[in-house]
Amino acid sequence: MSRGQSHVVGVVVLLALGVVTLSLVTAGVGALVDSSAANADATRVADTFEKGLRPATAGGAGALSVAVTDGRLHTENRTLRLTRDGAVVESVNVSALVYDGGGYGATALDGAVVVRTGGGARVRRGFPVTSTPELLVVGVARLRGDVDVAANRPTTVRLRTETTHERRDLDAGTYRLSVETATPGAFERYYRERGVTVEPRTDADGDGVESVVLAFPRATRVALVTHETELVR
């Protein structure tokens, strides 16, 4: 091969490498933009859940508008169990309102709000439970109604809500609360930081969804407050 031909081949190789490098950079920038948008979407939905779904304090008719860009807003079955001295006192499907988008998302579950971003899952608001040496109040925030909306462009999902409350007193004893969740680790960190006893996870019904388990000191006065919110699109 002549020197001229070698020079031409070298230029072609350099150009090819430049095209590959530019493609990799472009792909990387595109992925970064997509993840930033998904992160912003998840954070915005978590804000909406935190402000608009407050079952412990809401009452009567209301509305919830969830703005999403590219993802799916849907309900998932989740079971809450309350036990006293090892015996089941309450077992109920509380449901979760879940937003998934590009590996990010947000969840409203039993009055709690969780956001899932690039840094992992974080609890924004915990379950509606109050525990003191004299009094234990366990809130059960049930969501009823099926929601399943997929969006690939900016979309606002509008839901009507109707919330009712019911309270009943329970016998004294040592209580444990277990709630099925896709992010048990986030709840465990949240409650350990607040001095609540966290016990090993369980999967009581064998459906593959683990429950975070919280144990409370023996209480002489115990109340179970059910907050039921109907979701209608």
**What's the average pLDDT?**
88
Order of SSEs, N→C? HEEEEEEEEEEEEEHEEE
Strand order, sheet with most strands: 8-7-6-5-2-11
Compute the separation of the termini in Å. Answer: 73 Å
The class by helix and strand makeup works out as alpha+beta
Q: What can be said about the biggest beta sheet?
A: 6 strands, antiparallel
Low-pLDDT runs: 11-17, 19-33
The radius of gyration over CA amounts to: 24 Å
Number of helices: 2
Oligomer: single chain
| Molecular shape | globular
Tally of individual domains: 1
| Beta fraction | over 45%
The helicity comes to 25-40%
| Count of β-strands | 16
Give a written overview of the molecule.
The chain has 233 residues and is an alpha+beta fold. The chain contains two helices and 16 strands. The chain has one domain. A hairpin with a 2-residue loop joins strand 5 and strand 6. It is globular.
Topology summary:
Layout: H1 3-52, E1 60-68, E2 71-76, E3 79-84, E4 87-93, E5 96-101, E6 104-109, E7 112-117, E8 120-125, E9 129-131, E10 135-144, E11 148-151, E12 155-170, E13 175-180, H2 184-193, E14 197-202, E15 211-215, E16 221-232
Parallel strand pairs: 10-16
Antiparallel strand pairs: 1-12, 2-5, 2-11, 3-4, 3-13, 5-6, 6-7, 7-8, 9-10, 12-16, 13-15, 14-15
